[in-house]
Amino acid sequence: MPLLEPKPEALRPIVPQDPAPDRVPAALAVGTPGPLRRELTAVLGAEKVLWKVSDLVRYAADASPYRFVPQVVVVAEDIDDISAVLSYAHGKGREVVFRAAGTSLNGQAQGEDILVDVRRHWSGVEVLDGGARARIQPGTTVVRANAALAPYGRVLGPDPASAIACTVGGVVANNASGMAAGTTRNSYRTLASLTFVLPTGTVVDTGDPRADDELAHAEPALCAGLLAIKREIEADPLLTARIRAKHEIKNTNGYRLDAFLDGATPVQILRGLMVGSEGTFGFISEVVFDTLPLDRRLSSALLFFPALSAAAAAVPLFNEAGALAVELMDGNTLRASVSVAGVPQDWAELPKGTTALLVEFRAPDEAGQEAFERAAAAALAKLDLVAPVPSVTNEFTRDPQRIGGYWKARKAFVSAVGGARPSGTTLITEDFAVPPSRLAEACEGLLALQEEHGFDAAVAGHAAHGNLHFLLAFDAGDPADVRRYAAFMEDFCRMTVERFDGSLKAEHATGRNITPFLQLEWGPRATELMWRTKQLIDPDGVLAPRIVLNRDPEGHLHGLKTIPRVEAEADPCIECGFCEPTCPSGDLTTTPRQRIALRREMMRQPAGSPVGENLLDAYGYDAVDTCAGDSTCRIACPVGIDTGALMKDFRHRRHSPREERVAALTAKNFKAVEISARLAVAAADRISDRLLSSVTGLARKAVRPDLVPRWLPEIPGAAARGLPRTSVVGAVAVYYPACVNRIFGEPEGHRGPSLPEAVVALCARAGKPVWIPGDVTGTCCATIWHSKGYDLGNTVMANRIVEAAWRWTAGGRLPLVVDASSCTLGIAHEVVPYLTDDNQELHAELTVVDSIVWAADELLPALTVHRREGSAVLHPTCSMQHLGDRAQLRTVAEACADEVVVPDDLRCCAFAGDRGMLHQELTESATAREAAEVGRRAYDTYLSANRMCEVGMEHATGRPYHSVLLDLERATRP
């Protein structure tokens, strides 16, 4: 065991709680049962079988109120793996559930037996026919697919609010639609073709002209059965009319029986049935979408009404005016949204009944936009709007920033409201539709039901299509509260069906919570046809049982998820999964959602339980050590949960008092440390990489992998001994070269000035001279200590750098220009909680500017470009995302190259100072997709804005990344 191995005991939950009824049973303490694990390993290989109890727990978390723990998790890489799993399941009588993003709201992504991860290895987009179509892998997020289509002026039809995280396969499997899709732009209407694997292992490509012949040969009984059901439906005029009527409004409850009416052949019928089948008919391995025009001229307004019914009554006016989206948000939703960054804080004071409509018109050109705006103005003139708080304008705008803010608030509905729920309660998200003309009446009925059952739900939805969502919070561990929820659901379902002939699920698919009410909506005849269809396609019941069809009248009450209280930073989490696509460690160990889910399971367990102990043992590496600490999860999270900050706090908890004192001593004597580090790097430059790797590897084993960095060949040589000479006289800014740029030099083979020399030269060339203080050595942004959770050292350096910066900048009269984005973030924001009261006042007087922003805003207008590269690829850093200055990086790059590319698969490189050397596997996993994209072609230059991120990207791609400012200096050199 390493000398300084941290003790898991430091991470043991502090607040004891009574064991939860849904805790993982002791039988799974050692993970997957031995025979199941051995058999699947023999079939697939050990690397594709996740079996530890921590794996099973983290995959049991999704955005729904349900929680079913799988027996094993399989990470499938290709169709052969899918077929092998299905064959095994048939032979052993087991069940299989497919899971991609886990953003579904009704438990569709959960299984109690074999759970198959179809996200990790299933991402990719191929744009076809100039953007008219797109071939997409099922693990691709909607945002990623639309990013690939945007240059062609095209977009997918489905536009769910969870587009940042949900995958295309899940969208099709649930027939998710969204704000503007309605019944005409959803998956059912815009799919050109799809490829799927049936439960038997038969692969069907509906776009293949030979598909029906091949299916008839492989599955003759299936083909005959499908055509028989088609004839039976078509022979019943009343049933046919009923099916057509049910899909005139949004409806995802049950199977798409209209597929039997729309499809002429078995393959065409299956193509329709697969949409919205929730993984119960097969695995969708690829889809081809017909795309839609991306109309870029937007006019939007957030309009406020005194009551929900008044807002609902106004919806037809905007539908008639041609609005593409009319979104409703009630008072509870609006007030909860103040937790979302950018939302006006005075919304917290909105009166209880206040309701808003977010109305948006989209046009391809100026003429179309003006016509829509005239129609909107005419509609506005007929309304009695209210402005109960100062931020309300009730005006249409073209401003992209304001429009983006409106949509951010709307899309955060589930997470923002869920984050504001009472601690310890479970969130239920319901989704229904009524004829749009009866929306106001349905709103009144819903409010009456809430009051009757003692719920104060939040309501939002796609009002243009008569589709509403509402959220309920209750205690799943309290039988009385569960009964209250059950009574409400019974009354709600009856009201929706019997009073409005509505859809019990409009776009979230049936899921576990509506299966008992399927027959209530569809009647016995149609419901039995759905059962017959399931029996025909999946006679052994292998795929996703009880998710669409369930004869248990209380099926929706089984598996409800308790939400134990955890650390305050993470407690609001509803496990929506929005954080996961941005997480650098997601394909290696855990995501932010999973880190929180594991913590909650520890809280569910009784003290000393085998499950809790094994989770605790795994948590150090899986959650704490391999968190990059980049906090991009906070940006993605609608309620701003910073799991990275929580992991840093856990690192702090694991430190002994002695370690904290040593870290503080390092901060106090950082001048000597810095000089020694530069000399060590210089010495290392004369030793072979192999020897250095060997020596550091032995040291890591002897001491601790999380303390001793691994040597990487891409680590640059030492920086020059001295910084460029500058003068304080005439300087318009103070230039602070970050310690990383004072220790490390430029990439191997670099010819030209160092980064500090380039910055000084650029500023002089632009007539904006800067001054480098003579005593910068020994100062730092404090990120070194902050990222590792060394609070004492962080406090020492945070106060030192602020005091020095205040002195250098003459009390804040000059801006402080910092040449590493992570250091800019550190000085500008991250040091603040560690400052004394006096130094917080000094900090408030500072203007901290990233060097890229300084170059884009202050230098470029005064510079002349004399030479340019042909092409450049950018790696914007996660710190730049926090700072909001990625646009300036692109501006500077566009001055240096004719073509500038930001990879669609960009995410944090996870090098995180030295974490990429402490856990090399983290950076390699985090950068794998971006590196693959970058490697598909050659670029003339590879640019970023942080030295260690550049090292990480060079390690990942084999390409020499460097600061964009070096290229700018060369481009503008006379």
Helix and strand topology:
Layout: H1 34-44, E1 49-50, H2 53-58, E2 72-75, H3 79-92, E3 96-99, E4 114-117, E5 125-128, E6 133-136, H4 142-149, E7 154-155, H5 168-174, H6 187-190, E8 191-197, E9 203-205, H7 211-218, H8 220-234, H9 237-246, H10 258-262, H11 266-274, E10 283-290, E11 292-293, E12 297-305, H12 308-321, E13 325-329, H13 331-336, E14 355-363, H14 366-380, H15 400-411, H16 413-419, E15 426-433, H17 439-453, E16 458-462, E17 467-474, H18 479-499, H19 511-514, H20 518-537, H21 592-604, H22 610-625, H23 632-636, H24 643-654, H25 657-668, H26 670-684, H27 689-702, E18 733-736, H28 739-743, H29 755-765, E19 770-771, H30 783-788, H31 791-808, E20 816-818, H32 821-830, H33 837-844, E21 848-850, H34 851-859, E22 869-874, H35 878-883, H36 886-896, E23 897-901, H37 915-918, H38 920-926, H39 928-934, E24 941-944, H40 947-957, E25 961-963, H41 964-972
Parallel strand pairs: 2-4, 3-4, 18-19, 18-20, 20-21, 22-23, 22-24, 24-25
Antiparallel strand pairs: 1-2, 5-6, 6-10, 7-11, 8-9, 8-10, 12-14, 13-14, 13-16, 15-17, 16-17
Helix pairs in contact: 7-8, 8-11, 8-20, 12-17, 17-18, 21-22, 25-31, 29-41, 34-36, 36-41
Tell me what you see in this structure.
With 974 residues, this protein is of the alpha/beta class. It is 43% helix and 12% strand. It has 41 helices and 25 strands. The strands form 6 sheets. It has a 6-stranded antiparallel beta sheet with strand order 12-14-13-16-17-15, sandwiched between helices. Helix 8 (220-234) packs antiparallel against helix 20 (518-537) and helix 25 packs parallel to helix 31. The chain is globular and about 90 Å long. The model has no long low-confidence stretch (mean pLDDT 94).
